[in-house]
């Protein structure tokens, strides 16, 4: 241990001043309450209104699910007739076939061949020298 470390180890530990300690603890307590404070700010201005809104949603849900009589058109799912399904399927298939038919376009002639490019013997000679 060097002399400076020995000097520091002999010094008594002092606590933080009381006003610093109180300020630090108050800030920590405020930070811990932040998530709850958001919910309080959002719902506290009118908790009765929020409760009334929740009750209204429950009433609307009860009315939607409980008012329809058993024989109502929307109360039960009815399987469609098999003949009607087959007829609709065939009509759809015919419509797709009709839409898929393309008019005959004239045949496109093949592209003309490109004229041969002049070749330089310089590049060929360089490659032969390099790989020889």
Helix content: 55-70%
Order of helices and strands: HHHHHH
Give the amount of beta strand, in percent: under 5%
What profile does the largest beta sheet have?
none
Principal-axes geometry comes out as: flat
Number of helices: 6
Distance between the termini: 71 Å
> What's the multimeric state?
single chain
Describe this structure in words.
- This protein has 132 residues and is an all-alpha fold.
- The chain has a domain of 44 residues.
- The protein contains six helices and no strands.
- It starts with a helix and ends with a helix.
Main features:
6 helices; mainly alpha; 132 residues; 63% helix
Strand-helix topology:
Blueprint: H1 3-10, H2 18-32, H3 34-43, H4 47-66, H5 82-100, H6 121-131
Concise synopsis of the structure shown:
It is built from six helices and no strands. It is mostly helical and 132 residues long.
């Amino acid at each position: 241990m060097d002399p400076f470390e020995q000097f520091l180890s002999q010094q008594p530990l002092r606590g933080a001043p009381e006003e610093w300690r109180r300020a630090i603890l108050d800030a920590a307590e405020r930070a811990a309450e932040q998530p709850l404070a958001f919910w309080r700010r959002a719902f506290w201005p009118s908790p009765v209104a929020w409760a009334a809104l929740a009750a209204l949603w429950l009433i609307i849900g009860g009315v939607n699910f409980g008012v329809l009589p058993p024989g109502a058109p929307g109360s039960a799912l009815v399987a469609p007739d098999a003949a009607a399904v087959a007829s609709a399927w065939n009509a759809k298939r015919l419509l797709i076939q009709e839409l898929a038919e393309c008019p005959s376009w004239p045949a496109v002639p093949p592209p003309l061949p490109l004229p041969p490019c002049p070749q330089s013997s310089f590049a060929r000679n360089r490659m032969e020298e390099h790989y020889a």
